[in-house]
Amino acid sequence: MNAFQLYSRKKCSLCDQAKLVLEEIKTETGILYEEIDIDCSDELTERYGMMIPVVQWQGEVVQYGHVWKGELLQRIKR
């Protein structure tokens, strides 16, 4: 089964909003998400530090910054 990956960090209001969106999608579709704290890896912090939250779907970055539910739902239908 496919799942979203959410790259985030603690004390990030946009990350908290992204989690709420992904929770709604999980409730509606059953599609899970995995949250990855970028502060646990220097490589991830360097790659995503200025972009978080970052949402990946099937290995591709599909959204970052503000996360929009409608766009994510369209993405999973492709």
Word description of this protein:
With 78 residues, the protein is α+β, with helices and mostly antiparallel strands. It contains three helices and four strands, in the order βαβαββα. The chain has helices at 13-29, 42-48, 69-77, and strands at 3-8, 32-37, 54-57, 60-64. A four-stranded mixed sheet has the order 2-1-3-4, covered by helices on one side. The longest helix is centred in the N-terminal third of the chain and has 17 residues, at 13-29. The two termini are 15 Å apart.
Summarize this structure briefly:
With about 80 residues, this protein is of the alpha+beta class.
Please give a handful of descriptors for the protein shown.
42% helix, alpha+beta, 4-stranded mixed sheet, single chain, 78 residues, 3 helices
The main sheet orders its strands as 2-1-3-4
Q: In one word, what is the shape? A: globular
Give me the strand/helix succession.
EHEHEEH
- Taking all residues together, what is the mean pLDDT? 94
Number of strands: 4
Largest sheet: 4 strands, mixed
Indicate the radius of gyration in whole angstroms: 12 Å
By helix and strand content, what is the structural category? alpha+beta
Please estimate the helix content. Answer: 40-55%
Q: Count helical runs.
A: 3
Strand content: 25-35%
Distance between the amino and carboxyl termini: 15 Å
Uncertain spans: none
